[in-house]
Recover the amino acids of this structure.
């Protein structure tokens, strides 16, 4: 099989690593890839959002399967564009990807179909947004309607915080056009979990749950980031909870999209709050989470390619794979540039990646790296995802941090508590 992977971050490195292990794969290309992906795929000088370049390459090289990693090209309609050329694409079309691309669309879809989520309203006028915030009461959450790299949700503890958040989104436009429309919603208390399911249009397959760590500092403090670490499985999403999430959230959402003319082919990422009343949706994403993908794929023993291909071809998916219950736990620790998620410098030399990767059960997935004069240097905010798998979460955490300690670059920082709350090593807040 000839496979084209679109993207060049840590999630795509994990996908490339997993796809390249499949005996079904003859050729793997990545657009644009990164220095880590280059070990598993031929990297192309084609950007992930260059729809013409991707379409041209895929048709000219007889690509059998296109796997789209990031959300931006999906939200822009890459899936439809490639499918119109007869290509098999893992990733939803533009209308279905709006479940992530527009929070207003996603919240309205949930409201129309009775899918459990926080009470909300969508606003385009700051004054009306402020009035609604007063009516809902604090705590509440102000969210940009459009994509904001995981940073567009502001939890507000006081009415003044809410006013300030509305001003940042709608008046100061700190998130650009994404904040012209805001969603204001009630705060949901509970434990968060990310849940992943594959949908081919013909059937649905639950994959696994993972726990993301969004804030930059230990103990869930500091500003939100794209993701500072993740682990899988999550104890609170046991078989019973998974069945509930599938029946109450995933299946009705996919049915709702299909009923509205937007059938879903790809991975549906449900960001959940496990409240006292049951699981409720925080948000949906139209692709694998980054860094949840790294953790989940490390746990998976089965070949991923037949599943990706079945999704892309709209075929029936197999029954749930045994790996989701297999006794393997994994953790991914993000190593970031100094200053991230604010401004940061790049071009710092990275050492120790090979040593860390040589540890048993450890993979170092590249996110923001580049090669310069034969040296590996930093090229982004999130630089590496040090990922480990073991028989228990405690061993996976120990292995991942052993790997992190071997890596060095000027200004590097990381959270020291990824997976540790689940181990009872740090108190739940
Ligand atoms: P989102 O961009 O919608 O994923 O939100 C980012 C983060 O903000 C989530 O992972 C939650 O930690 C928090 N959050 C968002 N919406 C809510 C809500 N309604 N109640 C509580 N926390 C929320």
């Amino acid at each position: 099989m000839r496979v084209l992977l679109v993207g060049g971050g840590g999630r795509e490195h994990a996908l490339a690593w997993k796809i390249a292990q499949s005996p079904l794969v003859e050729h793997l290309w990545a657009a644009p890839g990164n220095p880590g992906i280059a070990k598993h795929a031929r990297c192309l000088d084609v950007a992930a959002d260059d729809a013409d370049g991707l379409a041209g390459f895929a048709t000219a090289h007889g690509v059998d399967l296109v796997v789209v990693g990031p959300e931006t090209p999906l939200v822009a309609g890459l899936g439809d564009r490639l499918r119109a050329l007869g290509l098999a694409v893992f990733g939803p079309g533009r209308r279905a990807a709006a479940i992530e691309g527009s929070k207003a669309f996603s919240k309205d879809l949930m409201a129309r179909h009775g899918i459990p989520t926080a009470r909300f309203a969508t606003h385009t006028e700051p004054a009306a947004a402020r009035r609604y915030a007063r009516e809902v009461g604090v705590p509440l959450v102000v969210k940009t309607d459009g994509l904001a790299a995981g940073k567009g949700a502001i939890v507000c503890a006081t009415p003044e915080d809410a006013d300030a958040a509305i001003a940042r989104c709608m008046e100061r436009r700190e998130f650009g056009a994404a904040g012209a429309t805001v969603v204001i919603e009630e705060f949901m208390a509970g434990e968060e979990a990310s849940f992943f399911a594959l949908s081919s249009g013909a059937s649905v397959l639950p994959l696994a749950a993972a726990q993301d760590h969004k804030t930059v500092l230990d103990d869930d403090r500091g500003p939100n980031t794209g993701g500072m670490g993740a682990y899988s499985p999550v104890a609170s999403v046991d078989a019973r909870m998974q069945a509930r999430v599938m029946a109450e959230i995933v299946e009705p959402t996919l049915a709702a999209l299909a009923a509205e003319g937007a059938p879903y082919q790809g991975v549906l990422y449900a960001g959940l709050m496990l409240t006292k009343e049951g699981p409720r949706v925080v948000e949906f994403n139209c692709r694998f989470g980054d860094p949840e993908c790294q953790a989940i794929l490390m746990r998976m023993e089965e070949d991923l390619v037949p599943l990706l291909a079945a999704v892309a071809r709209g075929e029936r998916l197999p029954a749930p794979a045994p790996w989701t219950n297999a006794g393997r736990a994994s953790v991914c620790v993000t190593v970031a540039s100094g200053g991230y998620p604010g401004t940061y410098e790049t071009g710092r030399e990275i050492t120790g990646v090979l040593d860390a990767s040589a540890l048993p059960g450890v993979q170092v997935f590249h996110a923001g790296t580049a090669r310069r004069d034969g040296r590996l240097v930093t090229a982004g905010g999130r630089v590496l995802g040090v990922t480990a798998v073991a028989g228990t979460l405690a061993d996976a955490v120990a292995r991942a941090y052993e790997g992190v300690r071997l890596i060095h670059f000027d200004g590097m920082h990381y959270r020291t508590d990824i997976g540790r709350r689940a181990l009872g090593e740090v108190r739940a807040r």
Remarks:
- The longest strand covers residues 266-275.
